[in-house]
Amino acid sequence: MSDRLYDPHPSEQGYSQAGGNNQTARVQDEINEAVSQMQKNIQLTSQRGERLDNLQDKTDALAGQASNFRRGANRVRKQMWWKDMKMRMCIIVGIAVLLIVIIVPSVIYGKHH
């Protein structure tokens, strides 16, 4: 915009037909600048809205992925828990079989001698 402000009451000495046309042209330029600035602002606001919509879409997608990850992590956790339980049961059964193999022959051998 122009550095000079619009004066709705022009001075008497500068108020001639040429001065009036010059002043009208200046006011029209200021209006054109204001319209141009408003159009730029509307365009920027529209672009911002599009970016916000894109961000919202990405946020929704990320929330869905997080939910899928959580379900998958819980499934893996349960699988690992069962795998751990199976391993513990195998170790317990192995120790029991080993004790039976060691104790039963010594008890049977101890009764005969």
Shape: rod-shaped
Largest sheet entry: none
Uncertain segments are: none
Percent range of helical residues: over 70%
Mean pLDDT across residues: 86
The helix/strand order is H
Tally of DSSP helical segments: 1
Estimated structural class: mainly alpha
Radius of gyration: 44 Å
Note the beta-strand portion. Answer: under 5%
How many distinct beta strands? Answer: 0
| End-to-end C-alpha gap | 119 Å
Describe it.
The structure is a single chain. With 113 residues, the chain is an all-alpha fold. The chain is 85% helix and 0% strand. It has one helix and no strands. The protein has one helix at 17-112. It comes from Meristemomyces frigidus. InterPro entries: Synaptobrevin-like, Synaptobrevin/VAMP, V_SNARE_CC.
Features:
113 residues; mainly alpha; 1 helix; coiled coil; Synaptobrevin-like; V_SNARE_CC; membrane; transmembrane
Summary, kept brief:
The chain is an all-alpha fold and 113 residues long. It has one helix at residues 17-112.
How is the topology of this model organized?
Elements: H1 17-112
